[in-house]
Amino acid sequence: MRVLLVEDDAQLGDGLKAALKQEGYAVDWATDGEEGDLALRTEPYDIVVLDLGLPHKTGLEVLEELRKRGSDVPVLILTAQDTSKDRVLGLDLGADDYMTKPFNIDELCARIRSILRRAHGRAAPLLTHGDVEMDVAGRTVTLAGQTVEISAKEFAVLHQLLENQGRVMSKGRLEESMYDWESELESNAVEVYVHHLRKKLGKDLIRTIRGVGYVIDKEVS
């Protein structure tokens, strides 16, 4: 999953980026509103963590323009202003949730997971397909109840495919979910990780759509 963090406080931003990367997210960090707005115009993200008090363009302006463009990417607002007016305005402009500084990092990560679940129309914290079960919070994968060791990048690919069951994910979109601005893209990375996942979880779990991408088909009820 790819996160855009828009935060001008260097110390807080650095800490948030490190914490989110530790949770397995690919994180791009913009330090002002204009940079954040440009990133949202040019890159696909799964969620945005957006400070309100930004230089050059406020967080509310970034949010308002994002929604006017028709984007439904989830947004979690960070604000140092603990007033109901700020919270109401942000939510009315299209934010999905908010947190007031200072906040607990574990709670922030939990709220992000909750927002992403709602965005994909599910309430359960686990992603499942047949005997495969993924605990996103615990970052574990089991097959028929047995823990399967997978790498961080394999987890990222599997997470995207399980979260979007029935939807074909292009190679490019899967790459974007794994790599941030500072990462060097590995050649044939997606193909390698899909190959590893098939060996560990079953060759029929992930289906290749030639010339398009990969998909985990929805289970027939």
Shape: globular
β-strand number: 12
Reported by name, the CATH topology of the largest domain is Rossmann fold
Strand fraction equals 15-25%
What count of structural domains?
2
pLDDT averaged over residues: 91
Q: How helical, in percent, are the residues?
A: 40-55%
Uncertain residue segments: none
- Topology as a string of helices (H) and strands (E): EHEHEHEHEHEEEEHEHHEE
Architecture per CATH nomenclature, i.e. the level-2 architecture of the largest domain: 3-Layer(aba) Sandwich
CATH H level, superfamily name of the largest domain: Response regulator
Main sheet record? 5 strands, parallel
What's the number of helices?
Answer: 8
Give the class from helix and strand content and strand pairing.
alpha/beta
CATH class of the largest domain: Alpha Beta
| Oligomeric status | single chain
What gyration radius follows from the Cα positions, in whole Å? 18 Å
Lateral arrangement of strands in the main beta sheet: 2-1-3-4-5
State the end-to-end distance. Answer: 27 Å
